[in-house]
Design brief:
7-stranded mixed beta sheet; alpha/beta
Length: about 190
């Protein structure tokens, strides 16, 4: 696992000890950031269920102005700290030790990109997406939510403020892109 591009390009990242996380492959991460393109530059990035921090670190390396990493596992947060220090990107990062769902009940702060990659087979992706949909103030104008899941986990979700705008499958990884529905917020 490495940083693909930007200021920390080529730097190797540590994995979280144990089997509690499922890091994104370099191939999928490269495809994701190719799709996101220049929208990452200057963006506020929220990495929910952050694990190794690989996706948020990639965003920072490519010019995101800030990345917030949320994870409930102490080992994951220690790994993210190590990876941020190694890549020298810690000044633009904020770590939150806690449950992602509890975090989403806080007063919303708008992000440009929200990445959701929870543990598989527990419908947590859907629960997180519904939480974000219930409070669309988490997304700034033009904001996107990207969900990483196992393809067989996907199910249509009734959303009021988010629309599925794209989906891409890379082997056993499905990336679903949700954009804010145009119109006034409730």
């Amino acid at each position: 696992m490495r940083v693909i591009a930007g200021s920390a390009r080529g730097m190797r990242l540590q994995a979280v000890p144990g089997a509690t996380t499922r890091p994104i492959s370099d191939r999928v991460k490269e495809a994701l950031f190719s799709i996101l393109g220049e929208s990452v530059v200057g963006a506020r990035f929220l990495d929910l269920f952050a694990g190794t921090g690989s996706v948020g670190i990639e965003a920072l390396s490519r010019g995101a102005s800030e990345a917030v990493f949320v994870d409930s596992e102490a080992r994951a947060l220690a790994t993210i700290r190590t990876n941020l220090a190694h890549t020298r990107l810690e000044s633009a990062a904020r770590l939150v030790h806690g449950d992602a769902f509890r975090y989403l009940t806080r007063r919303a702060e708008p992000f440009d990109l929200v990445y959701v990659a929870p543990p598989q087979y527990r419908a947590l992706w859907n629960r997180a997406l519904l939480s974000l949909d219930a409070n669309p103030a988490w997304l700034g104008p033009g904001g996107q939510v990207i969900v990483q899941l196992f393809p067989k986990e996907f199910e249509p979700t009734d959303l009021k403020h988010l629309d599925l705008s794209d989906e891409r499958q890379y082997g056993s990884t499905l990336l679903c892109f949700f954009a804010r529905t145009p119109g006034p917020l409730e």
